[in-house]
Amino acid sequence: MEKSIKSELIGVFIFNADCKAYEQNEGKIHWQLNMRDEYADMNEMIKRVEKLFLRIEEFNKKAKAAIAEKLIDYKNDFWPEYDEHLNWDAVDAGEYDVTKEEFEEAITLYDIAIRANDIYCEYDDGDLFGGHRIHAYFNNDYTLLSADV
Question: Are 75 and 98 in contact (CB under 8 A)?
Answer without folding.
Answer: yes
